[in-house]
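On clarity, I found the account of how folds are encoded harder to follow than it need be. Since the whole study asks how a given chain folds, the encoding of that fold should be made plain. For the editor and my fellow referees, an illustration may be useful. An entry of this sort, consisting of the sequence and the corresponding backbone structure tokens, reads as follows:

:::
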Amino acid sequence: MLNKHAIWFPGQGSQRVGMGKVLSERYAAVKVTMEEANEALGMRLDSLMFEGPLTELTRTDIAQPAILALGVAMYRVYSQEWGYTPAMAAGHSLGEITALTCAGALSFPDALRLVRRRGELMQEAAAAGIGAMAAVNGPSPDVVANICLERSAGRANESRIVVISNINSERQTVISGHKEAVQEASEKLSALGASVIPLQVSAPFHSPLMVPAAEHFAQVLSHVSFGKLDFPVVSSLTGYPYKNTEEIVVMLERGLTDPVNWPAVLAFQKSMGIATAVELGPGNVLKRLAPSAGLRVFAFDDKEDEAHLVASSQQTDVYSIELLTRCQAIATCLRNRNWNAAEYEQGVVLPYRGVQTLVDRLRVTGEQVAEAHVRQALAMLESVFRTKGTSAEEQERRLERLQDEFNLRGLLGVSSEERTYSGSLL
């Protein structure tokens, strides 16, 4: 199994004709998910995804539910058939709603109808034809932000706005706003050596020009019921996990006008010690953004990556030395409430030394960490809990975190299905 990892969901622009077709033929869960989507929307969404035409599939109100549906379908395979559980989830713009759906905050039918309406509102905002977007490769986000500020400064009638709409990496941003202002900023950035590519989009997404759409979307969101999260979802605007369901409405409304900050998401993930991610959705656009961040990413929609994920899911008895050392670290940091020297020697020192001897031997021989080794480390931890007088609540918290991080499943006797995420990664 993969160790502690995140799952990512892409946003609009990742759609393509044929998306999900082969997977629907290979995985029953994908086929069932597509049928559920057809029923929820009252249309043959799967036909548009599988056969096109591209002009229809790229419509905002079609592309968004299509991308969400495939993301959910892939998540069901990932979780139900492969048995994976993520340490956290995140999504790029629209992908954040997919992440929230997979985490249990939204029902699948509600999510489909919500993003279709989101797409309709965004499409309506584009009807005036005054907006544009462009991808900027090369300069840092700070440089791009300064150019945008220069182009927008002093516009009393607010008719020449250009802002950063997406920070995809330290070398790739997207700007959005009025056509003239975007063009002026693009020319200035090109003169500085940037590669600027106009985007074929229908509206200036993630900009102040989307305020009317955001206000209508807030009304739509007020009628949606949100449930508790089964695992943390990190906001692509702030780079921090949602604290509660009330925050979801606010952030999803802001998601139409505020910039996506993907590097902030990756920075938070790395701060939690998560160096691996699985991309669930069409293509591998998020995987392509990851190398500069030093993260390893597997995209479900990549045949080699999919094969790796399947193979890893079947390796149920493979453990790492890191698991053993993590048990040692927990034992060391626990507060001691027992000052009986003999009991401490017997219940803490000797079991700990036994695991240290085991770790030293495994490092020298290169021997595979087996279940028996893991059980020795867990028995040591249990002895330390008991001897140091650790509370039942702290024991449960630390064991749950250990299980989630290393996919221990049955070894600790606590299944992830029995817990819900309460707003903290710790």
Summary: The beta strands are 6-9, 88-91, 131-137, 162-169, 172-178, 195-198, 233-234, 260-261, 276-279, 296-299. Residues 175 and 260 are 11 Å apart (CA to CA).
